[in-house]
Records
---
Amino acid sequence: MGPLLLLTSTLLSSYLHPWRVVDAQKSFTIRGITLSVEPSTDVTRDTNVTIRCQAIVSSSGHQPLSREYTIYKDGIVVYTKTSSSSEDFLYQLYNARVSNTGKYMCKVTIEGEQRQSETKKLTVTGLSPPHLHINNGVISEGEELTASCTAPGETGSIIFYFYEGSKEKREERVNTNHVEVSFPLSSSGIHKLYCVYTILITPDSIWSEKSNSVTVTVRELPITPVLEIFPLQDIYEGDRLDIFCTVKNVPRNTNNLDVYLSQGDQLLSSGITEANHSMTALAKDSGEFECRLQMGHVVKPVSKKVSVTELFSVPTLTMSPAEVFQKEPMTLTCRSESFASERLRREELTYSLDPPESFLIPRGNGEFSGKALPYEFNYTCTAQAKGIVKHSKTLTVHPRVSVSTPRISVVGKAVLGRPFQIRCESDFGSLPINYTLLENYDPLHTVIVKQPGQQALFIVTFRHPGKTSKYMCEAKNSHKDGKLSETVDITAIEPLSQPLLTIIPTLSEIAEGTNLLLICSVKGTPPVTFKIYRDGRDQPLFTTNSYDNNTSFEIRDLSKEDSGKYYFEAFNPANNVISSEHIHVEVQLAMWKKVVIGGFCLLAVSVLVVVLALFFKSKRGKREAAAELSVKPSSPKSDDSLTVNLTHDTEVYNAATVKVNRTDSVWSERPPADNDEESSMVSHEPDVEYTEVVHPRSADPARVPLRKGTDTVYSELQNSPHAGFGGVCRAQRRTT
Ligand SMILES: *[C@@H]1O[C@H](CO)[C@@H](O)[C@H](O)[C@H]1NC(C)=O
Ligand SMILES: *[C@@H]1O[C@H](CO)[C@@H](O)[C@H](O)[C@H]1NC(C)=O
Ligand SMILES: *[C@@H]1O[C@H](CO)[C@@H](O)[C@H](O)[C@H]1NC(C)=O
C-alpha cells in the first residue's frame, strides 16, 4: 500500500510540476551602489586618490555571495575584480596625474543581477614642467638636429611640440612621457628652441608650461652658388645672352648637390654642379635670373637682374583717310614709333602686311595703298629687323557705302494749318546719314539717321492759304557733297469754310412751273464734293465732284411738292464736312391759277349783287309779304345746338347757329339785313299776339329784348323735359 502511495504521489507531483525539478529560491537583493572619491573629487597632482565602491546587499543565506566590481572611466572599463567579501571595494589611484581626470562609475554584478552607481567626476590639476635636451649644441648647415622632450611622471596620451621662437618645428603624439625627434634647421646662425606638451583628457586637453630653452648654433657651409650673365649691361633685343650657374667651395664627399637656373617660373637649365643657358634677348626677357643650389636641406639662391632694351617698338597699323568708302583709295601705314637708333638704321627695319593677298601695293616705308574692298577686311602688319619680328594689332577696315539718291515723299496730306510730314529716304548707304530738307532751295532742317530702320521725317505746317513751296532733300554720309532728291511742289489743301447756298429766283418769286436754281459755293481747295439735300430725305438730290469750289443744281418746272428746306454738304481732301444753312423754299400757286380764282370771285360777287338787286326790287312789290320764322333744333339729338333758319317764303337767305343753354332762354338775333322797317320777322298774320307757350320760370333781368328799329321780336325757348325742344316762336310786330 505504502510504495503505491509514494509512486502515486511522485507521479502526481511530476504531473503538477512537469519541468521544474529544482526550485532555487532567490536569497539576496542589491539595495544600492554608492561611489565616492576620497579624499576629494578635486585634487592636485601626486595625491593618493581612492575610488570607493560600496554595495549594500541583503541576503538570507549564509554562504558569501560572489560580487563582480567593474570601474568605468569616461565610459571605458578600467578595472574589474570579483570578491566574495562584503567589504567596500577600493580602486586606488596612487600619485594621481592629470591623465586620471575623468568621470568614474562603478557596476556590481551578483549572480547575473547588475546594479550601477551614479557617476562622479575626478579632477586632477598640475602638470610637471617639460624638459628639452639636445645631444649637440653645434651643427652644420644641412645637418639635422636631434632633440628630446620629457614630461616627468606624466601618464596618458601626450602630444609634444618643439618650437623655434614662435614657430612650431615639430609635433609628436605618444603614450609615454618622453619623445626624441630629428629635424633640420634651415639657416645658419643661432637658434633658440624649447618644447611643450599637452595631455589629452576628455573632452579637453591640458597644456604644460614651456620647457627650458636650448641654444643651437648652425655653422654655415662655405659652398655658394655663382651666377654669371654675359653681357650684363646694354643688352638689346636680338643680342645673345650667355648665362652660367656654378657652385663654389664644394665640400668633399658631397653627393646630393643640384643646381637650377631659372627665369621667373621658367626653368632654363639644371645640372649637378653647373647649369648653362644661351638665348637671344627679347624685350620680354627683362627681369631676374636665378641660380640656385640645393644640397640636402641646404638651399642657396643667387639672382641677377637683366634689362633688355627694345630694338624697335611694336608696330601700329593705321588707315588714311580715317573713313573710307567702298572702292575708294586708301593707304595703310605700318610704323614702329621708336627704335634704338644706336643699334639700328631705319632702313634695316622692314614692314610687311598680312595677309599678303590684301590687294594693297607696298609703297615703301611701311605704306600700302590701293582701293578699299567692298567688304569688311582684317589687316595686321609685321615689322622685323635683326631676326626680331613684331606684329601689330588687327585693324578692321569697314568700307562705307555711299548714300544713294534720296526719295522725297509727303506722308499723309498737306492741309493748311495742320502739321504734316515729309519723308526723305535713301535705299542704301552706311549710317549715319544726314538728311536735310530744303524749302525753295534753302535748308530747313537736318535729321541724322543713326539706326537701321530709323526714318528721316520732317514736320512742316503751312500757314498761308494758296502758298506752294518747292521741297527737296539732300542725303549725305561723307565729307563729299550730298545727293539731292527730286523736287516736289507742295500746296496745302485749304479746309472748306463759308458754305453759301444761293437760291434763284428770290424766294418770293418761286412759284409752280418756274425753275429753281441752287448755287453752292465754298471757300477752300478743290476738288470739292457737293451733296445737295432736301430736309427729311436721306439721299442727296444731287452729288457732284467739282474741280471748282462751287456748283449749281436746277430743279425744273417746280410743283407744290417741291416745297421744303434745302441745304448742301461739301468736303474736300482736307476731309472736313461742312454744311450750309437750310433754306426754306415755298412754291406758290401759278399765276394763271390766281387769275382764274380772282376771276371766279369777281364773277360770284357780280352775281350776288345782281341777285340782291333783283330781290329788293321784287320785295318792294310785296310789301306785306308774310314772314315766317321757324326755329327748330338742327338736330333732335343735339342738346345745345340749334339751327335757326330764317325763311322768307321758300327762299332761305341767311342762317345762324345759336348756342342754347338748356335752362335759359335764348334770344335769336335777327341777322343784319337792310335798314328797311319791314323786318323779315314780320308775321304773316296781321294780328298776332306774343304768346308764351311754356311759362317762364322767372323773369330774367338779363333778358334783353331784341330790338331792331321800332320792331321788337321776342323769341323765347323754354327748355322743358316734357316739352323737349319742340316749341313755337311767335313774333309780334308792333308798328309805331
Ligand atoms: C601614497 O601611497 C604610497 C604607496 O602606498 C606611499 O608610499 C605614499 O607615501 C603615499 N603618499 C601620500 C601623500 O600619502
Ligand atoms: C657650361 O659652360 C662652361 C664654360 O663655357 C663649359 O665649360 C661647360 O662645359 C658648360 N656646361 C654645360 C653643361 O654645357
Ligand atoms: C576681323 O576680326 C574680328 C576679330 O578680331 C572678327 O570678329 C571678324 O569676323 C574679322 N572679320 C573678317 C572679315 O575676317
---
Amino acid sequence: MRHNETTANLLHRVHPAIADFTPYEPGKTIAAIQEQYGLSRVIKLASNENPLGTSAVVQEVIRRHAAYSFRYNQAGTPALSDAIGKHLGISSQCIVAGNGSDELIDLLIRVKARPGKDTVLTFCPCFALYVLQARLCGVTVRQAPLNPDMSFSFSALLEQADETTALCFVTTPDNPSGYSPAVTELEYLARSLPPQCLLVIDEAYMDFVDCVDKYSLLPRLGELDNVIILRTFSKMYGLAGLRLGYAVCPPWLAQAMLTVKPPFSVNHLAEAAGIAALEDTAFFQASKKAVLQGRAVLEKGLTGLGCTVYPSQANFLLFCPPPEGNKSAQTIFELLLQKGIIIRALQSYGLERHLRVSIGNKEENILFLEALKEVL
Ligand SMILES: *Cc1c(COP(=O)(O)O)cnc(C)c1O
C-alpha cells in the first residue's frame, strides 16, 4: 500500500463487503505495551495462552525439524491426523488439521453455507471469528442472546433455526464466560436442529474442564452425524504461535474440507510439534494442574476484592468490578496496562461492564491481584 493512500479511498478497489468490516481485535501484545508505557516487564493475561509456556520437549522437536523447513510436507498432514485419531480413539478419516481452529471455522462455512442463501446461527456474544468469517463469506449471521448469567438458552437458539440454517456454532466451555452446558443439553440441541444444519461445537477450552465426560459430546459423535468438534493446540498445548487446530467430523465432511483446504496450511513444524505435544503427557498434566490451581486462586482473590466472578471451566475468568467502585471496566483495564498487566476489555463482545483475565503462573496471578487491588 502506498503511504499516502488512506483505507477509505482503497475501498472502491476491493469487494464491497470489506468496506464495513471491523477486523478481529486480538489481545494487546507485550511488545506493544512495553513500548507504549516504557515498561521493562509486562505480564500478559489477555489471550488465554499457556501459563507454563511451550513444552521443552516440543521445543526440542521443533529444533530438530527446523533443518527440513525447505521441504513441503505431505499435503493434508496425514501423519498428524493419524496421531490425533489415535490420541482420541477415533478413525483418522474423521480428522482435519488446520492452521489454528480459525482456519477450520472459515473452511466449514465455505464448505457448507451458500452465500446469499444460507445462514449461520450462534449466540451473542460469541467468539468473533464465527461472525467475521461468515460475513466475509457473504453468509448472514443470526444470533440468539445468552441468558443474563451467561448460560445458554438452546430454546432461544432453536427459535431462530430454519431451513436456511447451514451451521450452528456453540463454544463450550464458552469464551468469554467459561460456562459449559451439560453434555445431555448439547445432544438435545444436535437432535433438535433442522436436518440440513451442522452443529459445530468449539471445544478450544475442553482440556481445562474438571470432568470431560460431563461436558464433551466427542464420545457420542458416532451416533450424531451432524456434529463437528473443534479443538486446538493453542491453549493447553501451549502452541498458539505455531497455529494448529483440528476438526473431528463425519468422514464425508472431512473429505470435503480436505478437498478445498490449501494443502500446506498446516506447516511442517506445526505438524511435528503437534505429534510431539500429544505424546508429552507430563506437560499436559502440569499445565492442567497449574491452570486449575491458578483458577482457584484468582477466583478467590477476585471475589475477595468485591468482584463478581462467573463460574469458569476454562483457563480464564470473566468478572465484573465491584458495583460500588467508581471506576469503569475500561478504566480498570487501562490502569492495569499502565502497571504492565494486560487483561482483556470486552467491548468488542458488547460487554462494557466485564473484564476477562487469563490464568497465569503463580507469580503472575499474585502480581495481577496486587495490581488490581491498587487500581480498585
Ligand atoms: C482461542 C480460541 C480458539 C483457538 O483458535 P486457534 O485458531 O486454534 O488459535 C478457538 N475458539 C475459541 C472460542 C477460542 O477462544
